[in-house]
Write a structure and sequence with these properties.
This protein has about 450 residues and is an alpha+beta fold. Helix content is about 20%, strand content about 35%. It has a nine-stranded antiparallel beta sheet, with helices on one face. The radius of gyration is 27 Å and the shape is globular. The protein starts with a strand and ends with a strand.
Length: about 450
């Protein structure tokens, strides 16, 4: 059933697959298919299976492996051929012959699949776990979504962290690419961190759009270069969260709930709120005055700001902020889960955490603490309390979702605390060890 292209990989694992391959023409396709069928016949294999090859720049291909099962990316073949591969494999296993629509199969159009993972891309594609507060991908023509997760479910540390397979289909590769990129960029994904921004950036990158891809693509195009944050997103999203939060407070107010938070007959001090965005503290101040809304983010004035969609003397909506800044009007969706607000707009997506006005000093991690980069199981401990370790030395290792991650000493020092042992289950951010820096003589 023809070929699939799977060159876009990280850690030797596929994240974007498509059919047909932009690198394969009819003569090469015929040779690949003959070789694949010959491999199946040579081992007497009957059933759904995939033969994998690697192609060099000259057009020669080399055998990699046989997967005697359906592959994750089987939907792209189903979309271009119109065949149900899941049903077919069961029928073949039951002893039925291949039907004519398989032996005489043809394909039309193009399909591209993106694997949506719960993973921290900037941290090195570390798998993530936790609650999926929102997973909403709007239906669209040419879009297929296969998932075992939904809003309110949880990603555990015991299984693969793929949330969904999102597939775009169209008459051409460019049509499929645009359908898929649009669906992912508009999706509402709250709770666990995902690779959504990387997927959208790859789909919109010129080399990928031109079909100039290979297994070194993500080595040439680093994630931080593919999807840098929009500098406008931070201030706009922070202000939107502050306004949505005050709207929520006014809804809960027992008296004068129709007035904006902080409103006075006479000018007064602005309302202030502290947040954390991408690990950095930020402060928002705003005031509703006779001349409208005045606002600052981290001491910088937000100029020419207008709040739409509200009647005079009323607060903005707590989930949808209609904000105009500098003549550009945007709808900003804000979803609260605990102390975190998830923000979606055309500028991108942010997770903004509200900070305590009076934080508990005991909750702060001790200086020199080594924290778990991901949830998982401690599989090795290579140091003991009192050991003098060099910078870069492995202190312990954590395993999660078939990946092992070493926790290394950032500096030369003495291990003063080691509160965990082999087999312990740890959450992301848990203290694994405490290191006291030792100055060199």
């Amino acid at each position: 059933l023809f070929e699939r292209e799977c060159s876009i990989q990280r850690r030797y694992q596929k994240i974007i697959e498509e059919a047909p391959s932009p690198a394969v023409r009819d003569d090469l396709r015929a040779r690949l298919c003959r070789a694949a069928v010959a491999a199946g016949q040579a081992i007497g294999y009957a059933g759904a299976g995939t033969v994998e090859f690697v192609l060099d720049a000259s057009g020669r291909f080399y055998f990699l492996e046989v997967n005697t099962r359906l592959q994750v990316e089987h939907p792209v073949t189903e979309l271009i051929t119109g065949l149900d591969l899941v049903r077919l494999q069961l029928e073949i296993a039951a002893g039925q012959p291949l039907p004519p629509q398989v032996t005489a199969a043809e394909f039309t159009g193009h399909a591209i699949e993106a694997r949506l993972y719960a993973e921290d891309v900037p941290a090195g594609y570390l798998p993530a776990s936790g609650d999926v507060h929102t997973l909403e991908i709007d239906a669209a023509e040419g879009l297929r979504v296969d998932t075992g997760f939904a809003s309110g479910t949880r990603v555990s540390t015991f299984y693969d962290s793929m949330l969904a397979k999102v597939i775009g289909y169209g008459p051409t590769r460019d049509d499929a690419r645009r359908v898929l990129a649009a669906a992912l960029s508009r999706a509402r994904l709250h709770g666990v961190v995902t690779n959504r921004d990387l997927l959208v950036a790859v789909l919109r990158e010129p080399e990928f759009a031109a079909g100039q891809i290979d297994t070194g693509y993500l080595d040439r195009h680093r994630p931080e270069e593919l999807c840098p944050p929009d500098p406008e997103a931070g201030p706009v999203h922070l202000l939107a969260v502050a306004l949505a939060s005050q709207a929520r407070r006014r809804e809960q107010a027992p008296v004068l709930g129709t007035l904006p938070s902080g409103w006075r007959n006479n000018p007064s001090a602005p309302q202030r709120a502290g947040y954390e965005l991408d690990g950095r503290p930020a402060e928002v101040s705003y005031r509703f005055g006779r001349d409208g809304l005045q606002a600052e983010v981290d001491g910088d004035e937000v100029a020419n700001v207008l709040l739409h969609g509200t009647r005079p003397g009323r607060s903005p909506d707590r989930t949808l902020v209609d904000l105009e800044i500098g003549g550009i009007r945007r709808l900003i969706h804000v979803t609260q889960a605990g102390r975190t607000c998830y923000v979606d707009s055309v500028l991108g997506h942010s997770a903004v955490a509200e900070t305590d006005r009076f934080p508990d000093p005991a909750a702060a991690a001790q200086a020199g603490s080594l924290l778990a980069p991901m949830p998982g199981t401690v599989v090795r401990v290579e140091a003991a309390v009192g050991d003098l370790v060099e910078a870069g030395a492995v202190i312990l290792a954590i395993e999660a979702m078939k990946m092992e991650h070493s926790v290394n000493a950032p500096v030369r020092g003495i291990v003063t605390e080691l509160p965990i042992s082999v087999g312990a289950q740890v959450d992301s951010g848990s203290v694994l060890a405490v290191l006291e820096e030792e100055p060199r003589d």
